[in-house]
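Practice problem: predict the structure.
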Amino acid sequence: MASTPASGVADVDHKSVSTIRREVGSRLQAEQVRRRSQNLEELTGVAERQFARHLTSVVIGEHAGQRMDKGEAPLDTAVEQQLSEAVYASMFAAGALQALLDDKDLEEIDVNGCDEVWVTRAGAAYAEPAHPVASSDEELRKLISSLASYAGLNSRPWDEANPELDLQLQDGSRLSAVMSVTERPSIAIRRHRFEKVTLEDLVGNDTMTVEVAEFLTALTHARLNVMIGGATKAGKTTLLRAHASAIDPRERIITIEKARELGLRKNRELHPNCVEFEERIPNAEGLGAVSIRQLVRRTLRQNPDRVIVGEVLGPEIIDMLNAMSQGNDGSMSTIHCRSARDAFDRMATYAIQAEERLPHEATYRLIAGALDYIVFIKRDLQTGNRRVETVLEINGYDDGRVLSSEIFTVRRGGTHAEWTGTPPARLDELTAAGWTMPGAGERGW
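Answer:
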């Protein structure tokens, strides 16, 4: 099974595969929407794959008809079969990895070579060993290369010249792979168990309290700019996806990512007008690259109501903050940091490394004029539990630092963020968005 995705797809036309795959995916999604609207059970597992194969045959047949209408020779049966298998591989097949990807209890899959596999289950603090995913490292490399050929918006090479790879698998999982710089191929897969998640869902799994969820909902409705911070594996992407669920469906959203991961466009009921931008790496000649920074700038000409940068990792922070301060209210992003206030220094570090060499003081002023709140989420290393720890309001700039106040935080000995009793400076906006301050009636506010 491990060799299936890599066999019979190398010689097919990648552009045709991408075109057909997108059309099949669109029709499959339309069928799922139709079934939900009629209270029918969605297609899953084998049924979904069989229907996808049927759609693939239909779309390939339509393309054949279009070729004939143009006076072009039709593809022979063998080529059509290769094309069909390539489309199926791009949508579903991941070799022996597929069994792990189908395990809904897994959150992380780490491969340190074909026969050294570790998995982390939901709620577990540490990984456990799993079965090999290929018969050799070369087979593993071919498998990942095959997936990279069809995942995302553009084919991504993974070879000696391009040893790093980031992409989103069909099920929404994020894959990061490296080769040549390690003794054996190294693959890390982060599975998102909650693709369509709301703040209410995160209350249900104990990530936050009802009070925090209500406050975050108000932040969204009030169109305040939010940065979500946390360490690796903290749950930033899931929290961002849940935060975005509160956005009015009538709003136009543009997301920007290194490799598509948020998947807001999949939830067409909540986000019917959503465009996903993905960074493009240069080709073999070093041409054609489109950076995150360029994409952030481009969004200003795409009529967005909201701009969401999946993760700020470098100099694009300057463009992101500029966009927020110039009218893109309600924008969101995530950043790696050790605490809510540490996010300020992290952003300043990215900015000083940019070509502008923006000094810390200038970045702090930019943060104060652009960002409204930082939401910090933390993962307990012992239990694996993820919880919102701090909601920090940004109150301006003075004397070389960003002024801020904690609105929600975890008290000493506590486990969940609670209201600190500090009235938000943006109380009028939050009240208009439907938020009621805890104990407001008792205090006369």
